[in-house]
Amino acid sequence: MSHQRFEFVVIGGGPAGQKAAIQGAKAGHSVLLVDKMGHHGGECVHRGTIPSKTLRETALWISGYKQHAHLEEKVSCDRTVDNLMRRLDSVRTAHERFLEDQIERNGVERWHGRARFTGGHQVTVEAPGGPERTVEGDHFLIATGSRPRTPNNVPIDHEHILDSDSILSMIYLPTSIVVLGAGVIACEFASIFASLGVRVTMIDKSERPLGFMDEELVERFLAHFASLGGTFLQRRVIDRVEWNGTAVEARLEGGEVIRSEKMLCALGRVACVRDLNLDLLGVEVNERGVIPVDEFCRTSVPHVYAAGDSIGPPALAASSMEQGRRAARHALGLPDPKGSGVLPVGIYTIPEMASVGITEVQAMERSGEVLVGRADFAELARGQIVGDTEGMLKLVADPSGRELLGAHIVGVGATELIHVAQMAMVGGCDLESFVDNIFNFPTMAEAYRVAALQIVQAAPRELRRVS
Amino acid sequence: MSPESTTPLPEIVRAPLAERTSELSLELPMLPDTASRVMGLCTAEDCDVRELAELIERDPSLAGHVLRISNSAAFAPNEAIVSLQQAVTRLGFSVLSEIAVGVALRGQVFRVPGFDKTIRLMWMHSAAAGAFAKDIARTARRNVEGAFLCGLLHDVGKPIVLTNVLDVCKQARVRPNKPIVETALEEFHTTVGAMLVERWGLAPWVVAAAEHHHRPEEAGAHEVEANVTNLADALSHWALSTRDVGDPRTLPSVAALDLYDDDMVRIMAGREAVLELAAAFA
Ligand SMILES: Cc1cc2nc3c(=O)[nH]c(=O)nc-3n(C[C@H](O)[C@H](O)[C@H](O)COP(=O)(O)OP(=O)(O)OC[C@H]3O[C@@H](n4cnc5c(N)ncnc54)[C@H](O)[C@@H]3O)c2cc1C
């Protein structure tokens, strides 16, 4: 029996799959996008980035952190999550409509169903409710994303013990919550709930949260978290978790028991590759459960590509989109995209954090010497105006004080501000250009001048350009 | 799932029934006192389990029911639950309050003299729908706590419509035969149910589930809850064999909730436990 055939078959319609499909169709190729969810946008739009950021925005508004950090009083809020998330529907609908439009406008065919490989160039798609269709393709992209990891000793019931897929389905804000984990998702939700007045306890085996971020940023984050009543229990190992009928109990090794009304388990994510039948094709999956790819996102099987969370870190929406685009271009014989590879990281905790390039510690390890400049937001007119006196920008430069190696920011606008440093690094601007050029006043971007000036002044005199 | 009524109602019954069920003139039962107090406790910021146990203890028939239901397979007790205190610690606040609300409603709303068997079936259907709704919500990563009430109350309009259609028939000197009663129930139960739960001050998604469980696509912001309830309604009919719903796995709400065959097989495997729960509630 002959099946419908497409030049490019994309499995998964999140950021990676969506961008890849559009890229392929724009270049005039026949493209099929298969997603097991009926809605457009993938986990990113429905359970990940967009919902959590919408709740965060509301939390910021309620806690008054954003515009009114100087005000003592908190805005009283209706404690239903449904109310807090009310804006989500319009945000999600608008975004979804935009994605749907893009898919239709570019002539991408979209099927609602769960795909698995049934041949070297063949995929079978099972629609919800049963019926199956088989399709053939020249090239394939696996963009099936990831799902929360569920450890054996944490019985997630999505009612009392939740994961990041179900946490936002709560109707009422609990009075207390334990967050297991200290990664990005754990810290984001922990700080959002704390700023909404929930008693939050974050538990992790590590020394400090967000181990890959600059230590000073994390310290400031933890100080703010503590000021909201949050507790971080470091170096704790979970023995088991149970719902005892009235509370969730986290039993730690050593006998400690932490009780809370709800629990969020955020102990990492696993790539969604298990049901794809990859063995049939010989697509390699490594010991961490992700698909190894080359620089063009090609798997061990040349006509099969993978992108996004299914290939592992950095597992961010923006990097997933870029990988999807790159995979599509390579698969369809289009010229490779020009990208610098300088990738910013944004963490939407309260306060938010962002970084690009390497940290002070990494720079020291690399060359044994480093110059660092800092700007406290409290010293900036804009910082005082917006009431952010806890934020900070930190620049890391090579020992000559010329080359910008990294930038790290915590505080209001961090995830936007970081792009100034990113573009400076991409464009090869030296530290002095931050001092030489004029930024608007009053702005948070002034922090760049303050921090850069410290470095320039500390740099060896003979290497300086400005006196 | 769409309602199965086919026979049009005689105008002599339809017109006064429509008149009665219009918001202003319908007499609606109050939310049973115990149910309203239990719900009040649930939404309080610091819900107190002991207070709930005391509330239940004060009503011996309620307490008896709660114990019976607590011991049903749906809650899979490892050991027999013999006291309310034990039920409280074993089952927890939310489950216990669901049981208490259910039992209170059963006694006061699901009661139409002379129609015990019909009402009993209606009630079993509601209880089973509540249990299925929880499992569906859990599988679809939607709110589990709110789903039970959506399922339990989706047909709460039916006993009221039944009471009224009997009354209207009596006044119009029409024999309330099966087709008339069934058609009236199908035609009016969603509107009346929604009016009722709204008047009781229940959450908007419970109102939407009562109103739109046959047409979830019309439920606007609460389409998900309406889909969960639609599927729970069908599964309940399937489990109790009260209506031919075909293969529940092929229903549009299954696709709307992005559920797949393995999800449905797992949910449907809970049939026995759900049936036992429904029987315990009845
Ligand atoms: C709570 C949370 C907050 C986050 N916040 C941020 C943030 O602020 N910034 C950021 O950059 N990133 C954030 N992320 C990460 C970001 O959402 C992911 O990196 C991104 O969504 C990955 O995109 P993707 O295309 O790989 O996969 P996904 O977005 O996960 O989409 C994968 C799609 O594949 C589909 N699928 C899976 N298996 C199959 C199959 N067999 N057949 C058909 N379809 C299938 C799924 O239905 C899904 O639609 C967050 C994640 C979470 C969970």
Describe the model.
The complex is a heterodimer of chains A (467) and B (282). Chain A has 467 residues and is α/β, with parallel strands linked by helices. Chain A contains 14 helices and 22 strands. In chain A, strands 1, 2, 3, 4, 5, 6 and 17 form a seven-stranded mixed sheet that branches. Chain A has a five-stranded parallel sheet with strand order 8-15-9-10-11, with helices on one face. In chain A, strands 18-19-22-21-20 form a five-stranded antiparallel sheet, with helices on both faces. In chain A, helix 1 (15-26) packs parallel to helix 9 (317-331), helix 3 packs antiparallel against helix 6 (86-105) and helix 3 (49-63) packs parallel to helix 7 (184-195). Chain A is globular, with a radius of gyration of 24 Å. Chain B has 282 residues and is mostly helical. Chain B is built from 14 helices and no strands. In chain B, helix 3 (49-57) packs across helix 5, helix 6 packs across helix 11 and helix 7 packs across helix 10 (204-212). The radius of gyration of chain B is 18 Å and the shape is globular. The complex binds flavin-adenine dinucleotide (FAD). Flavin-adenine dinucleotide (FAD) binds at residues 11-17, 34-37, 42-44, 48-49, 52-53, 114-115, 143-146, 164, 185, 272, 275-276, 308-310, 315-318, 320, 348 of chain A. Flavin-adenine dinucleotide (FAD) is lined by residues 11-17, 34-37, 42-44, 48-49, 52-53, 114-115, 143-146, 164, 185, 272, 275-276, 308-310, 315-318, 320, 348 of chain A.
Topology:
The complex is a heterodimer of chains A (467) and B (282).
Chain A: E1 4-11, H1 15-26, E2 31-35, H2 42-46, H3 49-63, H4 65-68, H5 81-84, H6 86-105, E3 109-112, E4 114-119, E5 122-126, E6 132-142, E7 146-148, E8 161-163, E9 176-180, H7 184-195, E10 199-203, H8 215-227, E11 231-233, E12 238-243, E13 248-252, E14 257-260, E15 262-265, E16 269-271, E17 304-306, H9 317-331, E18 345-347, E19 353-357, H10 360-367, E20 371-376, H11 381-386, E21 392-397, E22 404-410, H12 414-427, H13 432-436, H14 446-458
Parallel strand pairs in A: 1-2, 1-6, 2-3, 6-17, 8-15, 9-10, 9-15, 10-11
Antiparallel strand pairs in A: 4-5, 5-6, 7-16, 12-13, 13-14, 18-19, 19-22, 20-21, 21-22
Helix pairs in contact in A: 1-9, 3-6, 3-7
Chain B: H1 11-21, H2 33-43, H3 49-57, H4 60-70, H5 84-108, H6 116-139, H7 144-153, H8 157-172, H9 178-199, H10 204-212, H11 223-240, H12 252-256, H13 261-268, H14 271-281
Bound molecules: flavin-adenine dinucleotide (FAD).
